[in-house]
Amino acid sequence: LPLNLGNKEITWMMLEAGAETDVVNSVGRTAAQMAAFVGKHDCVTVINNFFPRERLDYYTKPQGLDKEPKLPVKLAGPLHKIITTTNMHPVKIVLLVKENPLLAEVEALQKCYKVLDLICEKCMKQRDMNEVLAMKMHYISCIFQKCITFLKEREDKLDGLIKSLLKGREKDGFPIYQEKLIRESIRKFPYCEATLLQQLVRSIAPVEL
């Protein structure tokens, strides 16, 4: 990857053309690790957030004994847009759901979060484990599940979720609901042995709400 240019657009184009992210150089470093080493953090973000569309399209075709695909074709585009976003703020993800009528329905979100859970599992169990992508898929899945709860139970639906996420605590304006949602998603990550999970827990645990 063109680390010397530090050009995230070129990095993205090369990834879309099939560049492998897990190939290592002569000193055993991946492109993302080398980009981080030379301070090209935009490139690191692009590499870590890249997810080929064909890997998602796999779920739009019936597999094995399945009669129906796990993901309807019409949901693949909207879901891929969210998967590849680099802005992981929960409000941003809920807004991306809200702006697409195909996604902002209970049944659609149920199908999507189940596919995200399958991708998360695959990321953790493949030979070249990708903890970053696994955690991201799990995190988005948790937000989708929270969207489902609000769509089912609240009259103000996703607007109510956005308000809850943005509302600050009275005494200091701290967004307590948002913090609890993020912590809950970390706590529910099913792969306790993951290094990334342990790092997150170590950094968050000392911070009291």
Structural description of this entry:
- This protein is mainly alpha-helical and 209 residues long.
- The chain has two domains: 8-49, no CATH class; 53-205, no CATH class.
- Helices cover 60% and strands 0% of the residues.
- The protein contains eleven helices and no strands.
- Helix 1 (8-16) runs parallel beside helix 3 (41-49), helix 2 packs antiparallel against helix 3 (41-49) and helix 8 (131-153) crosses helix 9 (157-166).
- The longest helix has 23 residues, at 131-153.
- It is globular.
- The mean pLDDT is 89.
Provide a concise account of the structure shown.
The radius of gyration is 18 Å and the shape is globular. It is mainly alpha-helical and 209 residues long.
Key words describing this protein structure:
209 residues; mainly alpha; 2 domains; 60% helix
Distance between termini?
42 Å
- The count of DSSP E runs of length 2 or more, i.e. the number of strands, is 0
- Principal-axis shape: globular
Secondary-structure class: mainly alpha
The tally of domains stands at 2
Sequence-ordered SSE layout with sheet pairings:
Blueprint: H1 8-16, H2 31-37, H3 41-49, H4 53-57, H5 73-83, H6 90-98, H7 106-125, H8 131-153, H9 157-166, H10 176-187, H11 195-204
